[in-house]
Amino acid sequence: MTRGTAFHERTSRLNERLSWEDWWGYAAASAFGDAIDIEYNAVREAAGAIDVSPLFKYVISGPDAGRLIDRVITRNVAEMQVGQVFYTPWCDERGKLIDDGTVARLDEDSYRWTAAEPNYRWIKLNAGGLDVRIEDVSAEVAALALQGPTSRAILEAVTGEEWSGLKYFRRRSATIDGIAVDVSRTGYTGDLGYELWVQSGRAVDLWDALFRAGEGYGLRAVGMSALDVLRVEAGLILLDAEFTGVRNAFSAEQEYSPFELGLGRLVDFTKERFVGKGALLSEQKAGGPPRRLVGLEHDWRDVEGAFARHGLPTVLVLGTLREAAPVHAGVDRVGKATSTTWSPTLKKVISLALVDRTRSTPGMRLDVEWTVEGARERVGATVVELPFLDLPRKRD
Predict the structure, then answer these.
(1) Which residues pair with 179 in a beta bridge?
(2) How many helices (H) and strands (E) does the chain have?
(3) Identical fold at 8-54+139-222 and 290-396?
C-alpha cells in the first residue's frame, strides 16, 4: 500500500496534476504543475523544496559505531570529523555494489546513514562482536532538500543564522520556529543546497516556516521529474538507472563495481579491511572493470536529422528517458546510454552511459540509438567528462 510522507498534507494540496509515483511505498510527486520546466528553473534560478523523506535512514550509535561503518563502506571513517558527511558506496564480498548513500557523523559515537534501498539487515550482519546500536528511523525522520542559488538566503531568513560557513558535505544543528532540525550541506541537484532532517511530527511545521521565509526568494515545490533532469546534468547516478544493486541482479552483467560507476575515488585501499576490499584489489591489479561511466553529448544535427527523415519537426519534452539505448562504435555495440535528457542550461541532449573502457576517453566519437516513429536511428555523440554541469556555487 502506498502512503504519504510526513509532508503529504502539504504536497498533496500542491499536486494539481495528481501526478504521483511510488518511492518504496511512499507517494512522491512527479510534478506539481503543468510543466516540469518551472520546477527545474526554480532550482537553477531560485530555490526548490524536494521531499526526499522516502530515503532509508539508520542511526548507528555506541562505542563501536565507527568500527561498524568502517567495516561496511569503502571510505575511511577514521578520517571523518564530527559534523562531516561522506557520500559513499558499499559492496558485497565480491566487490559488487550493494548501494550508495551518505553517512553523517552526528557526534563522537553516533552517525546517520542514508540509503536508497533497505540495508538494515546487511548492516546488522556486519555488526558481530561490536558494541553498537542500529536503529531504523526511516519513518521517524523526514527529509526536505532545499536547493538552488537562493537556498542559503532562505535558510538564513528562517533561522536567523549565517550559513556561508557551513562547508560542502558538512552538517550542523539548527532551530526553525522552535523546531529542531539537522542541516547538511548536501543534495542531489548539483547546485547550492541543503538537506533538512526533522522529526516526522514536525515536518509540516517546517514546510510552512520555509515557505513563509521563501516567499520572496522564488521557492517552489519540486517533484521527481525535475529532480531527475537536475541530477543527470550533475552527473549523479541513480539506482535502477545507472546500476542495479547486487542483491537484485540476475546476471553478472547487472553487477557493478564502484570503479565502473565513477566511484573509484571513494574506495580507500589504505584501510585495513572493508567488505569487498580483496575483490576490488584483484580487479584493479587485473586492469580494472570492463565498463566505465561516461557522459555523452549528442550531435544536434543528427537529432534533427532523425526526426526529419520521418517528416517531423524536432520535438523534445523536458524529462529523463531511463530506457537503456544501445551505444555503438561502428558496427560494434560498446555499451548503453542509461539516462538521457535535454539540458535546458547547456542547451544540449546529454546522456549518462556505461561503455567499454576502451571507448571511454573524452573526445571519442560514438553513436547512440534514437527511436523515432518506431524506427531505430543513430545519433552521433562525443564522450565528455562528468559532471556535464559543474556550478561553482555548489561548493562555495
Answers:
(1) 176
(2) 9, 20
(3) no
